[in-house]
Amino acid sequence: MTKSISVFFPAYNDGGTIASMVLSALLTLREIADDYEVIVIDDGSSDYTPQILDELASVYESVRVIHHEHNRGYGGALRTGFSSATKDLVFYTDGDAQYDARELKLLFPALVDGVDMVNGYKISRSDPWYRTVIGRIYHWTVKLAFGLKLRDVDCDFRLMRREIFDRVHLESDSGVICAEMMKKIQDAGFIIAEVPVHHYHRAYGRSQFFNFRRTLRVALDLIRLWVMLVLKRGGQVGTAAAATK
Predict the structure, then answer these.
(1) CB neighbours of residue 19 within 10 Å
(2) pTM, to two decimals
């Protein structure tokens, strides 16, 4: 058995998939952990996601639901999830079932002593061609701009030690929070392992991040993040180095 673990799912209009994700997580956690909780962040859903989640929480005592009155964005949902987790380890993936929550079991063997985080990477991407193209452009843009040493910067299937967030503080509200998180974790010197996981076609709902309507907003968010984490931080490092000479 593992240490205690919090599993959480950000969910926005995921009524058709979130119940299966929660149940898959519960079945998996019973196999691998003695102490666990499942948290779902309902980020202001307008479909029947809130009702599904409240029903699950009424049946399973280890399930906890946090409702955002208004949509706070993917980053806002993740920040709520991380701040609400109470166990030694934290795992999260999306509520849209494009990843299989049961593959959480694949990450644990890589979380050995000295490793702080296990990041999944997609074996292959199961998306429409345009999302695949946008995703590939996003991956290489973020990887090169932020100097990330990851095989897959936008695979939201991650297991980490909660103590990481004693030093890493997240600020983004949009989907670029993942770039912020991985940049800050890498720069803080935490050790990251990577494990291949499967990626599936979206069966319900639609993407809130990778679509043409939001491309400009994502680009602007990335530029602001790059200025904050790379340009300004680089200037601060340079100033500090000059001061020591």
Answers:
(1) 18
(2) 0.89
